[in-house]
Amino acid sequence: MLALVMAALYFGTDAVQSLDRHLYDAASSRAAHVPLDEIVVVAMDEASLDRMGAWPWPRDTSAQLVDRLSSAGAKTIVLATPLDAPQSNLAQPFFQKIRGLLRTAPPEAAVLKEQVGRALDEADAALDADARLAISLRNAGNVLLLTQLLAPSGAAAGGRTLPSYVHRSALPDLGAGFVLPASAGAQPLALFGQAAAGIGHMQTGPEGVDGIVRQAPLLLGLDGAAVPSLALLTAMHSLHLGAAQVKPVDGHALRLGGLLLPSGSPALLRPQIYANHDGAPPFPVFSFQDVLQGKVPAAQWRDKIVLVGATAPRIQPLLRVPGGGQLAPVELLAHQVSSIRQGHLYTEPAWGGAVMWGGLVAVLFFGAVVLPHWRVPQGVAASVVLAVALLALQWVWLQQRGQWLHLMLPALGLLAGLVVHLVLRRAEWSRAPRSMDQGAQEPDRMMGLALQGQGQLDMAFERLRRVPSSPELHANLMHLAQDFEQKHQYTKARMVYEHILRQNK
């Protein structure tokens, strides 16, 4: 019966899973892992918004940033902001008007017409921020961009297509089970996508009901392509690895060159969320406007993975992560890249379900068969110690092996079995005093009968009136009253009858 109750609690509510997730958050966020020192974040923060104006900024500012980072020797640059819509050149209508006037100019103004036309072309190119950024992307040759694929949506997404420049970054077919299906969202403009070194997604989830981001798909499938996450693509680029060097292993892991990434099936990324050190973030963060103005030494970028993205909530909302903190998407990307590069990943082993249900059966057997033979203090102590040991095992196993065992259900089953045992034991105790009193008074009843047999009726009554009420006692008292009547001691016989009536009330 208790097994059915625990199963109903697990499948019918989120209580057990919620406690399990809280334990995962606490254990994973306290793991003693050191972040990768190659990662630097350039933040579009509140200070940059105050200095540079409202978002979005002109794209030539991003072009200047890319030029500065590239010339300083950055290994990999990631622009983790959407580039899916063109930015209009406000001067373009006026240029078109001037060109129209030039076409009506007289022949004797041909030289001036040519000079003005050339100046207009130069001004148009200089004011075309999109073209300026595309040139910077192409010149750098190491910039990764963001594609906005939507959350997994099943087979209905299969008919959508992706641009060819997104296909360039896609991985080969890794087999069934690794790739989550997705639907197409906004893509980078073609002039950006064709100039980029690669394109990946930043889709998170599926999240828990508590809204905390614990995992993200490594691969999203659309249009026959396995589009890698931006974190996976960044790790590959920083290690100079191509798509052909990513291989599936045993259906539950990916081999990335010399790295083995436990991912499960489908391939999910559960990163380490690194703790702050003495109040400082785990990765260096520099303000966009400070970098643009040259306030950060160029040596800071050499051989670094530079992640550029919004940290101001005015641009992009923050994400809740394990450990009770909040991170901007670009900051979460930093944790993901570091986790991939260093193998600081968490996964649910394929055999984890068998361990959970087997553990529940074992603790219920303990509560039903072993616990009743122990004294209460020993049973309580053993049950509590075993429950704590199960949770400690889950904690240590997660931190040391990177595998999430779900032992919360067996631990709760053990404590539930203890509660049932204590309730049953208390019920036994509530019945025990009466039985003990009856056993203790039995000698009085036997002595009373012996005295009655000797004719000492008064002494017999004194003994029998001490004994608790029972059918046997009532029969003995009836015989005693009849003996008093035979001796014509009617008053004493009446006393015996009254005593019987009082006991029957």
Jot down its keywords:
alpha/beta, 505 residues, six-stranded parallel sheet, single chain, 18 helices
Number of helices: 18
When the domains are counted, the total is: 2
Instruction: Please report the distance between the alpha carbons of the first and last residues.
Output: 40 Å
Sequence of strands across the biggest β-sheet: 5-3-2-14-1-13
What would the principal axes of the Cα set say about the shape?
Answer: rod-shaped
Extended strand count:
16
The unreliable regions are 153-159, 432-436
Strand content bin: 5-15%
Radius of gyration: 40 Å
Structure classification: alpha/beta
**How many strands, what sense, and barrel or not for the largest sheet?**
6 strands, parallel
The helix content, as a percent range, equals 40-55%
Residue-averaged pLDDT:
86
Compact description:
With 505 residues, the chain is of the alpha/beta class.
Q: Can you describe what's shown?
A:
There is one protein chain. This protein folds into two domains: 1-30 and 351-468, no CATH class; 33-83 and 140-342, no CATH class. Residues 153-159 and 432-436 have low confidence and may be disordered. The chain is built from 18 helices and 16 strands. Helix 2 packs across helix 14. The protein starts with a helix and ends with a helix. By secondary structure, it is an alpha/beta fold. The strands form five sheets. Strands 5-3-2-14-1-13 form a six-stranded parallel beta sheet, sandwiched between helices. The chain has a three-stranded mixed beta sheet with strand order 4-7-8. Strands 9-10-11 form a three-stranded antiparallel beta sheet, covered by helices on one side. 50% of the residues lie in helices and 11% in strands. It has helices at 2-12, 15-29, 46-52, 59-71, 92-103, 110-127, 129-140, 164-167, 190-193, 230-238, 288-292, 329-342, 352-370, 376-401, 408-453, 457-464, 471-486, 490-504; strands at 39-44, 76-79, 143-147, 180-181, 198-201, 216-217, 219-222, 225-228, 246-249, 253-256, 259-262, 268-269, 285-287, 305-310, 319-320, 326-327.
